[in-house]
Amino acid sequence: MKKFHHYITILAGTSLLLASCSVGKKYTRQDMELPDNFRNNEIVLTSDTLALSWRKFVKDPNLTALIEKALIKNTDVSVALLSMQQLELSYKQSKKGLLPTLDLNVGANRTWLSTNSLNGSLSDQFIGTPYMDDYNATLRLSWEVDIWGKAKMQKEEALANFFGQKENLSALKTRIIVQVIQSYYNLIALDEQLKIAQKNVQLSDSTLSMIRLQYNSSLVSSLAVEQAEAQKKTAELLIPLADQNIAIEENAISILCGGFPDKIQRSEGLDATVVGGTLATGVPAELLSRRPDVKAAEYAVVAANSRIGLAKAAMYPSISLTPSIGTNSFQFNRWFDLPGSIVKTIAGNITQPIFQKGALKTNYEISIIEREKLAVQFKQSVMLAVSEVSDALAKIKHSDRRLQLIEAKSNSLAKATSDAALLYKSGMANYLEVITAQNNALQNDLEQISIKREKLNAVVDLYRALGGGNDTE
């Protein structure tokens, strides 16, 4: 017995000595080779914070109320929060990896032995019954020595998954904020398109009335009346289309805000929607710390790095100690008759996988490939983030140029429409010139609204691409 205790002591000492060994490698970020500046970065930089709060970025009270509602009631956010709770529980569980497990087993059984067996004959002779009872209560402790740092790697993986989900939640909230803002702008743009269509219907109706008077006076043919009628219908067709799109956009915003389709309160025009001032773009390298989706992609690589260590540790031997203590008796009334019924066991085990049909090695190689895949995806997310900033900067720059040009074009077409009507009344222009001028003005007004909406959406895209909007607590 003393020799056995000596072996157990040696085993425990060896376990503690090896416990400092670790087969996992510490994660190091790969070289991104990022450019020094963003392309098309001609926006004047300010001293504003790079991650501007969405509450400061959004100035419209109606829009602010919609975003607040979306961040609380959106179903995707609710699901993401529940996923975070799951990962938090997994992390808390991983922190207990070094603790032993303790099990209590209480059981009783009765066995009728064969009378022709040795045990059966002895049982009948010494116990006086044709059966044998066994009452057992055992408290068993099991502890695996963390030789290769598996508990640490499990904790690192769980922590990386938790923070990755936290960044995914921030990215989701940012995306929802942007979707609500852009849908809100689209809704207001549709309102303006509806107003322009209604205005053009009135203008076309006035022109049609004038041409009918001239037709009744035999000054123009029926062709002029039909052309004017067609021009009026062109404007009228825009009204039900705008009403349809308005209803669809309101429904989409309602769903984003976690409610059923309903009317949406909004400002009167795009010019009344104000967003934050000039954004400081910084440099591409700062996206690594500002973009939640980029940070989530890196946490995925960190978790994969820990899984490689765990897969490698699975190929190495494991050492466990399993002491137990309990009571055992063949008579119920003497089950807990101490100390006679006490039974004690102490055991140490070393388990070394030898032949697993190559499964452990395959799992290890798969985990390496998985980390390489996630590393490539992480780099791709960084490249995409830099590209999104550059795209948004290009849209803002060229939208400003288009707005200047279309403003000048609007002035020219407004004068052309007015002059065409005057010339037509004085007989110096025909009805086709009047209709053409009105149609050109209509199309130009619709295009101007689209460009304004594109400019606002581009500013919002830049805000998101720079990592803004993630202060969503």
Automatic annotation (TrEMBL):
Family: Belongs to the outer membrane factor (OMF) (TC 1.B.17) family.
GO terms, molecular function: efflux transmembrane transporter activity
Keywords: Coiled coil, Lipoprotein, Membrane, Palmitate, Transmembrane, Transmembrane beta strand
Superkingdom per UniProt: Bacteria
InterPro entries: MdtP/NodT-like (IPR010131), OMP_efflux (IPR003423)
GO cellular component, one term: plasma membrane
Location of this chain's protein in the cell: Cell membrane
Main location class: membrane
Membrane topology, from the record: Lipid-anchor
Record's signal peptide: none
Coiled-coil region: 432-459
Name recorded for this polypeptide: NodT family efflux transporter outer membrane factor (OMF) lipoprotein
Organism: Sphingobacterium detergens
